[in-house]
Amino acid sequence: MRTKIFALLLTVSLLFPTQAFAAAQANVSNNQVAFDFPNNAAFRATITSDSEIRSVVLEYGNEQQTCGDVIAKAFPQFTPGKSVNVEWTWEMRQSGSLPAGAQIYWRWRVTDANGNETVSETKTATWLDDDHKWKTLSEGLINLHWYRGNESFARDLLSAAQNGLKFNETQSGLVATAPIDIYIYGSTNDLRNAVLYEPSWTGGIAFPEQDIVILGISEGDLAWGRVTIVHELTHILVGHLTFTCLGVVPTWLNEGLAVYSEGKLDSASQAQLNNAIKNDTLLSVRSLSAGFSEASDKAYLSYSQSYSLVKFLIETYGQAKMTELLASLRNGLTVDEALQQIYSFNIEGLEDAWRKSIGAKPRTVSTQPTAQPTPTYVPTIAPISGNQPGGNLGTPIPTSYSGPLATPMPPEYTSGPPLSLTLILLGFCCLFMLLAGVVILGFIARFGNQKSKGQHEQ
């Protein structure tokens, strides 16, 4: 009996191969994404199956450093059938803008009437505008992308980036461990058109989670560009070394390292810091752990103080301890705990030692409990010089952790318009007022004549 059953099963398996019993897979074709940069990304596909398609889910996201694997899901509307066209649009104005150069991925998960599930291949695309003809220069871990200016311009910036990496490695213990993409927009106007929800004065932004830096640098602002590209690269390196879901890096440390990587302070910033030391108007170090002030003078002083604090720690206690401090913050220690463990003082102790080293008056001790601020970050301020467009040179505005990381422009860039321009504008205003007065007097005289004529006729 068993022999007959075995023979029957063998005959069936020969007549109907194993593949015939496998669940039929849905076919996904015309699988693509269309960008309306920087506003949205529209995903489309045509799906066919031998059985009626009952469910289609789009799984999508962008490749970045995260605390866990998070996959976004969207549920496009469609009429069930054996062949369906599906489409869903990722609105960046709702979710927040991705940086130029970010890698977007997506796939479709399809379920038919029999419960069979098909998952399409995962596809990727680079989130980038097609308005510009991008060119690329690569050296080591740096990929520099640009479209305006000759190759000499791009190589100059690439060289500055490489020098910045070397300085950070030798002086601050910050080492690049992954490729970094730098996108150079030809002007700050072009840059602002490429990002959403950033202040009108934004000149550059660093995105450590995606290893991306975007900057608006014209050939006329090359000197500013060399400095700022190093600053933003430092934010990427700090972000990599300190990435954690357990704690945060205080803003004075993050920004201080970035300014320190540029070299010494510019003369205007140094003069402002010296005046604050002389007049005892320094900001408390604990207050610099959070977002910097929205008042421009305090904002610039915040960067100068942060630089001075980092310079004090590195040049007094050595680069190795700075690396240890950053690692401790990555491991979840608070800034007070990390400072105490490595330097034997907390934030107030740091301020006391730092003030003494720069010849400032002792810290004023408050009787009120000190709040524990959360660090935030701000976009880079664009220069107002050369061929760059003008605009209001504002103050950094605090943003969320995943937002941009900042570099301020030196205070000398904030000087008002030239005196000649002011006088010309004043002259135009006076001329306009004079003409307006003549017109008004003409109307009054005409009205009086008409009234007098009417009385005379009566």
What do these coordinates show?
- With 458 residues, the chain is an alpha+beta fold.
- The chain has two domains: 21-127, Immunoglobulin-like; 135-414, Neutral Protease Domain 2 (Neutral Protease, domain 2).
- The protein has 13 helices and 13 strands.
- It has helices spanning 2-15, 18-21, 92-95, 151-172, 188-193, 222-242, 251-261, 267-278, 296-317, 319-330, 335-343, 347-358, 419-457, and strands spanning 27-36, 40-62, 72-74, 81-91, 102-112, 117-119, 123-127, 135-139, 142-146, 180-185, 202-207, 212-216, 380-381.
- Strands 1, 2, 3, 4, 5, 6 and 7 form a seven-stranded antiparallel β-sheet that branches. A six-stranded mixed β-sheet has the order 8-9-10-12-11-13.
- It is globular and about 80 Å long.
- The relative contact order is 0.09.
- The model is unreliable at 4-21, 367-376, 384-404, 406-422 and 451-458 (pLDDT under 50).
